[in-house]
C-alpha cells in the first residue's frame, strides 16, 4: 500500500512542536509495517540543502501564490517530496510567523499551495508512484481532502489527523476564489465557519476518515469544553473519528545510549540516574546534596499547560524538600514568574528560559518526576519520554496524558503496575495535593523504584500505533 504523508513540519528538518515529531517518526514506523510512504513538506530555508541534492519530479505554474516545483530526496530514513516555492517558503522566521512574531499575511496561499500539490500527487501520481491514501496533518494540510473531493472521479481516500483542534486556519471569505475553492461549498456543511473559510473544518467535512492523537482526546473534542467550536462538526462525523495514540522514537530517546547523559542507564542500573541529577545541579545551580525529589518541567510556558498553577505551587515543592528544574519558553508573565521563583528559592529552583535539546534529555535522565499539569493535552510526548527514562510523570487527567500514565493508587501500587501520578484539579491546591502524594511515595524507596521499573517497561514506541494506522489504511482501501 502507498501512502502520501502531508504536513507543514517534520523532525529533524523543521520543528515547532509535537506535530514534527510525529511526522518524522510515523513514516519510518509505517515502513516497518509494510507501508510505502512518501512525505510532502514545504522547502523552508533549513531544507534548501536537501533541495539542492534532490531530483525535480514535477512542476506547477498555477499554485495559489505562484509557481513551484517538487523535488524528491531521501533523508533521515524517509522519502521526501519538497515543495520548492521560494517566494512562499524560503524566508526568515518560523514556519507560520515572521521575525516580528506575527503570522505571515499570505499563510492562506502558502498552505493552500501545499494542499493543492498533495491533491495533485494523489490524483496524478509521481512517475509510476501513485498513493492509495493521502494522509494530512492539522490545518496547514487540511484543504487537500477538499481539493480531492472537488476533483471527483477516482481520487485516493484521505485521512486527516488533528494534533490540536485549537489551531484551525481561519481566513476571510475573500480567499475562496484565490484558493480555487468551490464557492457553492462555502456554507455550514462545507468549509464555511462563522463567515470565514476554515481549512481545518474543510478537512473535517471532506476527509474520508478523521483521527486524533489519543483515544481520550477523540472523546473530549466531541464536547463544547474541548471541541473549540468544532464539536458539532465532529459529532456529526463521529462514525469517521478515532483516536490513535502517538509514540516516540525509542532510538533517539534511549537512556542506555543517550549521549546527552552524564551516565547512561537501564532498568538494572537505575542508580546511575544520580550522576545525571548531579549534572543538572551543575547546569542549573541547584544544591547537589539535596535528598528530596527533583521535579522537572520541559514545556512551553503557557496557561494551556497549567504552568500558571504550578508557579503558585513552587513554594510547596520547596517546603516539602523538593527541587524544581524548569526548561521552556512562552508567555512572558510565566517566564518572569519562574525566574522570580528561582531568585526566591536559590539552589532549590533552577530555570533555563529557551530550548536546549541536550538539556531536555539530561532533565529526563536525572529528574525523579516530571510535572505536566495541562488543562488539555491531545496526546503529549514528554510523558512518554519520561516513562522511557524512569522519570515518573505527574499529569492532569486529560487527553493522552490520561491514556499513557497509570496512577499510583493503592491497587496499582500493590500489583506493581503504577507508572506515575494522575490528578484532576489543575489549580495551586490541586498541584500541592499531588506533590504531597509524590513526596510521600518518594520516601518509600523500594516502592518508588518499583514504579520506575514499571515505567521503563511500558511500551512507548510507534509499533502498535503504526499497525493501527496500517489497519485504518487497509480498511479504507477495501
UniProtKB/TrEMBL annotation:
Boundaries of every Starch synthase catalytic domain copy: 2-235
Catalytic activity: [(1->4)-alpha-D-glucosyl](n) + ADP-alpha-D-glucose = [(1->4)-alpha-D-glucosyl](n+1) + ADP + H(+)
Domain Glycosyl transferase family intervals: 289-441
Keywords, comma-separated and alphabetical: Glycogen biosynthesis, Glycosyltransferase, Transferase
GO molecular function (one): alpha-1,4-glucan glucosyltransferase (ADP-glucose donor) activity
Domain of life of the organism encoding this protein: Bacteria
Keyword Transferase appears in the UniProt entry: yes
Listed pathway(s): Glycan biosynthesis; glycogen biosynthesis
InterPro entries recorded: Glyco_trans_1, GS/SS, Starch_synth_cat_dom
Pfam family, one: Glyco_transf_5
Keyword Glycosyltransferase applies: yes
UniProt binding sites for ADP-alpha-D-glucose: 15
Enzyme class: transferase
Similarity comment: Belongs to the glycosyltransferase 1 family. Bacterial/plant glycogen synthase subfamily.
Physiological role: Synthesizes alpha-1,4-glucan chains using ADP-glucose.
Annotated HAMAP family: Glycogen_synth
Protein name: Glycogen synthase
Amino acid at each position: 500500500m502507498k501512502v502520501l504523508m502531508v504536513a507543514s513540519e517534520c523532525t529533524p528538518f523543521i520543528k515547532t512542536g509535537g506535530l514534527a515529531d510525529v511526522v518524522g517518526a510515523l513514516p519510518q514506523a509505517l515502513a516497518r509495517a509494510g507501508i510505502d510512504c512518501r512525505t510532502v513538506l514545504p522547502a523552508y530555508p533549513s531544507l534548501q540543502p536537501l533541495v539542492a541534492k534532490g531530483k525535480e519530479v514535477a512542476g506547477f505554474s498555477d499554485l495559489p501564490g505562484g509557481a513551484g516545483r517538487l523535488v524528491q530526496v531521501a533523508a533521515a530514513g524517509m522519502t521526501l517530496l519538497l515543495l520548492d516555492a521560494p517566494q512562499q517558503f524560503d524566508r526568515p522566521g518560523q514556519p507560520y510567523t515572521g521575525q516580528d512574531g506575527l503570522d505571515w499575511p499570505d499563510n492562506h496561499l502558502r498552505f493552500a499551495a501545499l494542499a493543492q500539490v498533495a491533491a495533485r500527487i494523489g490524483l496524478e501520481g509521481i512517475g509510476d508512484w501513485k498513493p492509495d491514501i493521502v494522509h494530512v496533518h492539522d490545518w496547514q494540510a487540511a484543504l487537500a481532502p477538499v481539493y480531492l473531493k472537488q476533483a471527483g472521479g477516482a481520487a485516493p481516500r484521505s485521512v486527516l489527523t488533528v494534533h490540536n483542534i485549537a489551531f484551525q486556519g481561519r481566513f476571510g471569505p475573500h480567499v475562496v476564489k484565490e484558493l480555487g475553492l468551490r464557492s457553492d461549498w462555502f456554507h455550514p456543511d462545507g468549509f464555511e465557519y462563522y463567515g470565514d473559510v476554515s481549512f481545518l473544518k474543510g478537512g473535517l467535512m471532506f476527509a474520508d476518515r478523521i483521527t486524533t492523537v489519543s483515544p481520550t482526546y477523540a472523546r473530549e473534542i466531541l464536547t463544547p469544553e474541548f471541541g473549540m467550536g468544532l464539536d458539532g462538526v465532529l459529532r456529526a462525523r463521529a462514525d469517521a473519528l478515532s483516536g490513535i495514540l502517538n509514540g516516540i522514537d525509542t532510538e533517539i530517546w534511549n537512556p542506555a545510549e543517550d549521549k546527552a547523559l552524564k551516565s547512561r542507564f537501564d532498568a538494572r542500573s537505575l542508580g546511575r540516574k544520580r550522576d545525571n541529577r548531579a549534572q543538572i545541579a551543575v547546569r542549573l545551580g541547584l544544591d547537589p546534596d539535596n535528598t528530596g525529589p527533583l521535579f522537572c518541567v520541559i514545556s512551553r510556558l503557557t496557561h494551556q499547560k497549567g504552568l500558571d498553577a504550578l508557579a503558585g505551587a513552587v513554594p510547596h515543592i520547596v517546603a516539602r524538600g523538593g527541587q524544581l528544574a524548569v526548561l521552556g519558553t512562552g508567555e512572558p508573565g510565566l517566564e518572569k514568574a519562574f525566574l522570580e521563583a528561582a531568585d526566591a528559592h536559590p539552589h532549590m529552583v533552577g530555570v533555563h528560559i529557551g530550548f536546549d535539546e541536550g538539556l531536555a534529555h539530561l532533565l529526563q535522565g536525572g529528574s525523579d518526576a516530571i510535572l505536566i499539569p495541562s488543562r488539555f493535552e491531545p496526546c503529549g510526548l514528554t510523558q512518554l519520554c519520561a516513562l522511557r527514562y524512569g522519570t515518573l510523570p505527574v499529569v492532569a487527567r486529560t487527553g493522552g496524558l490520561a491514556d499513557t500514565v497509570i496512577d499510583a493508587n493503592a491497587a496499582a501500587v500493590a500489583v506493581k503496575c503504577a507508572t506515575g501520578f494522575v490528578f484532576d484539579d489543575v489549580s495551586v491546591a490541586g498541584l500541592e495535593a499531588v506533590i504531597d502524594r509524590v513526596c510521600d511515595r518518594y520516601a518509600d524507596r523500594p516502592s518508588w523504584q518499583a514504579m520506575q521499573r514499571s515505567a521503563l517497561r511500558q511500551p512507548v514506541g510507534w509499533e502498535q500505533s503504526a499497525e493501527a494506522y496500517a489497519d485504518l489504511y487497509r480498511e479504507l482501501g477495501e
